[in-house]
Amino acid sequence: xxxxxVALAWCSECRIYTGAxxxxxxxxxxxxxxxxxxxxxxxxxxxGEAKLVEHLDRHAGRPA
Length: 64
What we know:
Blueprint: E1 2-11, E2 16-25, H1 39-46, H2 49-58
Antiparallel strand pairs: 1-2
C-alpha cells in the first residue's frame, strides 16, 4: 500500500517551490534533511518557513 505525503520541489535558481500530494510506498524510507541537526536548531527551522527554505537551499546537493 501507499502513504500520502506532501512533496515540495524547490528551485534554487528561480527561488520558488511547488507542492503536491504524492503517494509513497510504505516500504520506502523517506530521508529527513534535518535529522543531523541538534534539536534546538531543528525546532527553530521548523517554526519558520523562510528559515527552513533558506537552510535547505544552502545545503542542497551536499551529502548528509
